[in-house]
Input
Amino acid sequence: MKTLLLHTDEIEKAAGIIRSGGLVAMPTETVYGLAADALNGQAVAKIFQAKRRPMDNPLIVHIAELSQIDDLVREFPEKARKLAEAFWPGPLTIILPRSDKIPPEVSAGLDTVAIRCPSDETARELIRLSAPLAAPSANLSGSPSPTTAQHVIADMDGRIDAIIDGGSCSVGVESTVITLAADPPRLLRPGGITLEQLREVIGEVILDEAVLHPLAEGQQAASPGMKYKHYAPKANVVLLKGDRTAFLQFVNAHNDGKTAVLCYEEERHDLKLPYLVLGKEGDYETQANQLFAVLRQADEKGCQTLYAHCPSVEGVGLAVYNRIIRAAGFEVISLA
Ligand code: AMP
Ligand code: MG
Output
């Protein structure tokens, strides 16, 4: 299949592809999404093939206006309304009891559906001109999510109908996912909207254990996506826990031509081996924005091992931690 590369002034063409059951990669403020008509089960099934995504991992449905939600869910509780008012359009996904119109391919057989209203204008226009869109990240399953059209081309060229090039994504990690199908509400995946922000609006929110820890053998994931190794470059990612002096000492002792370091801006001049800069220490927004691009760059450099700081879990740092600990397969070395 030939994959068309479209500009943001060709959204009508992309909408035509969606209406006829095809797949279009679109920019959003989080990461690029691989979109199909969410109410067309056959079109949605093609997403799983193109991404090689396990069929038991459900998809997020993207809407352009709050009114579109009525057809998609059975209930829209007060807490969901408050969250939508506070954070939509934006990087928050809300899980609710699904309506009968949701095809089983979207919800992977669950009784719930994940809904998000993105703020990216290209994505919203595509939805307005076509339909609510089921759209996971537009990468091959398991690899780092795409934050530029070039990342999408690298994974998906020849596998999908079209890519709309909307430049770089502003948030850079996938949306925050909260379920309101549980009481109290539960954070299943951290993202650009923080746990602290959610608690300010609706009070108690539980942090699902799978956000920070690997699932024990046989344990059921509240969010099926949490059980897969994710976001991983080909390089072996290892996290280091310790202060800056210990970190620099450890990595500088590994200048073997095969190793690189994911470092903070402030550290670059003290490194004796190849490095990629994630952002300033404590600037979690920039780190989230850069993370997937630098993981892809590590592979372009051909490095075999990538050492990185173990991030703090406050604010958007929790989203960075959640992605990087999975990229590392939960491998952390504590430095004295
Ligand atoms: P992605 O589409 O790749 O950004 O991933 C969507 C995430 O939301 C995955 O971790 C899914 O498992 C999760 N998700 C989507 N729908 C549901 C649902 N109904 N219940 C629980 N988790 C969901
Ligand atoms: Mg994904």
The mean pLDDT is 95.
